[in-house]
């Protein structure tokens, strides 16, 4: 069993903390590896607070005391290795940029995994499993992600469509019913045309699930938001981590549906047997 995410607990509780306790949280977030070797007096001195404030901070995030907090922090660090930042250099060799792409992707997936709200996943699975039909809305790279998700739902016997044109999205949204579901996918969370389509879908009574950065306009407007926070690229060709993070979350939803929708597993087995006839035995 994985230890609980103590970093996420700090980030979640930070706004409800006292000002002095936030100073402790901010120092730890910037110096997490150093803190596991500190005494309580050392941390209090570095954060410019009193020792009782450190104790109150630990209790605010669900720890019994400072030693219990250090154990939780050390476990989190051990299970969350740091990967190299994804930035290209003009002199990068093939080996260097190959490893940078892999490292950046693993880091992005780890961040999304550690921050994802499981309750939002459960609600999304329930909505999608019961939907009469599912409409995916997205633009650019998000449209490609939506197409992959549509294929997943097709295999799960759920009627689904993908629309990446704003006019078609508008017509689709105005044609929806209350038992339909929209999945709005956005890596920026700020696309105006997508916001307009979401409003139209909601006016039709259809619930909207958004895959977008937390706190973004699209995430706020949606009926159910699954936050996907991935660092923005630096202007080079670097959309891969964000795209794969969105695809991973959509795969999670597909797995959830396959376990909650009656008859799906048998249907998937039938499909797999049927596909065997289309595959060559050459090279086996």
TrEMBL record:
Q: Name one Pfam family in it.
A: HTH_6
Q: Which residues form the SIS domain?
A: 124-263
Tell me which UniProt keywords the record has, alphabetically.
Answer: DNA-binding, Transcription, Transcription regulation
Q: Which InterPro entries match?
A: Homeodomain-like_sf (IPR009057), HTH_RpiR (IPR000281), RpiR-like (IPR047640), RpiR-like_SIS (IPR035472), SIS_dom (IPR001347), SIS_dom_sf (IPR046348), WH-like_DNA-bd_sf (IPR036388)
Superkingdom in the source lineage: Bacteria
Question: Key word Transcription present in the record?
Answer: yes
Q: Boundaries of each HTH rpiR-type domain copy?
A: 4-80
Query: Which PANTHER family did the record assign?
Result: GLUCOKINASE (PTHR30514), HTH-TYPE TRANSCRIPTIONAL REGULATOR HEXR-RELATED (PTHR30514:SF1)
| Name assigned to this protein | MurR/RpiR family transcriptional regulator
Organism of origin: Zhongshania guokunii
The major lineage groups are: Bacteria, Pseudomonadati, Pseudomonadota, Gammaproteobacteria, Cellvibrionales
């Amino acid at each position: 069993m994985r230890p609980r995410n103590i970093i996420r607990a700090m980030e979640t509780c930070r706004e409800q903390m006292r000002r002095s306790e936030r100073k402790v949280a901010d120092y730890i977030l910037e110096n997490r590896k150093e803190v596991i070797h500190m005494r309580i007096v050392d941390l209090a001195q570095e954060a410019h607070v009193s020792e009782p404030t450190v104790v109150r901070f630990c209790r605010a995030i669900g720890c019994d005391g400072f030693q219990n907090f250090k154990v939780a922090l050390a476990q989190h660090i051990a299970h969350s290795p740091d990967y190299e930042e994804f930035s290209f250099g003009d002199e990068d060799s093939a080996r260097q940029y190959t490893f940078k792409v892999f490292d950046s992707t693993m880091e992005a997936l780890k961040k999304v995994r550690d921050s994802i709200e499981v309750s939002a996943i459960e609600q999304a699975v329930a909505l999608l499993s019961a939907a009469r039909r599912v409409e995916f809305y997205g633009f650019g790279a998000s449209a490609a992600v939506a197409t992959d998700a549509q294929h997943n739902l097709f295999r799960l016997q759920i009627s689904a469509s993908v629309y990446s044109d704003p006019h078609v999205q508008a017509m689709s949204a105005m044609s929806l019913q209350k038992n339909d579901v929209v999945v709005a996918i956005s890596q920026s969370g700020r696309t105006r045309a997508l916001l307009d389509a979401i409003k139209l879908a909601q006016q039709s009574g259809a619930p909207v699930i958004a895959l977008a950065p937390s706190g973004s306009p699209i995430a706020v407007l949606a009926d159910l938001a699954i936050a996907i926070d991935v660092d923005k690229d630096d202007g080079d060709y670097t959309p891969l981590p964000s795209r794969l993070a969105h695809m991973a979350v959509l795969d999670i939803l597909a797995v959830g549906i396959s376990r909650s929708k009656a008859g799906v597993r048998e249907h998937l087995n039938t499909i797999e047997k049927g596909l065997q006839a289309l595959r060559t035995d050459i090279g086996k």
